[in-house]
Amino acid sequence: MRDDASAEARARAPEPPHGYAVPTPGASASALLPESTAPDTSPTARPWTPPASSRRSMATLIALAASAFMIVTNEIAPLGLIRLMAADLGRTESEIGLVTTVFAVVAMVTTVPLALLTTRLPRRPLIVATMTFWSAGALVMATADSFSQVLGGRVITAMGHALFWAVVTPAAAGMFAPEMRGRSVTRLMLGASGAGVVGLPLSTWLAQQTDWRVPFWIIGIGGLVLAATIAVLMPSFRTAQGSVARGDLPSLRRFIRVLVVVLLTTSSMATTWTYITPFLVEVSGFAESTVPVLLALAGATGVVSMWLTGRFLDRWPVRAVALGEVGLLVMWLGLASLGQHKPFAIVMVLLQGLAWSLLVAAMLNWALRHTPWSSDIGVGAQASTFNAGNAVGSVLGAAMLAWWGAQWLPLASAMMSAAAVALVAAVAPDATRALARRGMRQRR
User: Fold this and answer.
1) Residue-wise pLDDT tens digits, 269-294
2) pTM of the predicted protein model
3) What share of the chain is helix, strand, coil (3-state, %, to 5)?
């Protein structure tokens, strides 16, 4: 609170003499340098020229959103295939759940190094190469006949996944004006949300009707088609040439708070949702064939939530995070206490779709606002933390599932969500508005 109060006081202070930036606690060292030597972080300090026409940029955004759909479908497909994969490969469900852990750990470890290695490369060839590499990993999964080959395919796709999310958000937002950042992010994330509506239930249904490898054939071939599409449509530019090259309110201290919230939130989600099929079957009493329908319902509410989020994310960035965190906490508590009743479980699944989709976009936007580094490095750090939470949660969930049973998973998730709610609530709304006013003055 003390930091927020001092931030508000600084925001109300007179503007500094021209040529110097206002230092903030925890900000990067470059904020203390004269503007002639410090990196230029003001969105309108230099004239910005769109890298392409609005029509071409929108077509590229659609292709990137479709790629996000494929990327996320591959990531979450094991949630619906876990029982089929376990039976076919002669492994337990907990062991197959650890495939998710391996994926998350690889993505966590490789995101920032890959972002640093590629930060100066043009976005178009980089994203095309990333999608091609990722598609190769999906095809390795499609031809897997052993647990070790499944792990190999997940490692390859995890590396492609890591680099994709480090570069695609700044690239997508960078094609549009700065005031369109929130909307462009949510439009990109609509593709990711669609993975819950169509990708996960469809892959689960296809696997149940044919073989668990069939969805990965479709994902891998689709990724190659999208790589070719992006190569044709996307303008070529570097991160520094985009409209969101850096955070508009950079602060290391605030960025660390964002990362802690991301870690707690994704850990809570992975602890239970990685094993949501066993929970819905064993605790709620649904037939396994019903699970794809329930997941599709959750995905549908997630798409609605993502579409609505774009309308207010730029105006209320922190409140959007708070709203999603509270929704997630209520959902976990509901599953923990009344998840054995089918009607109540359905309501909680719908609430999960609403809260989680809101949080995915809101946490990413929050990180972009406060990153003290370039936007691709900031997004890379956020994505690495996101995957660290996935790894922690999936390991914890696997242990709880094996030792105590699925009914205890939501309670552990609720404890982590409660801690995230407390951290977000500690952000003083008045200070946040003051910082926003200062950002608006900088843009003028």
Assistant:
1) 999 998 888 899 999 999 888 887 88
2) 0.70
3) 80, 0, 20
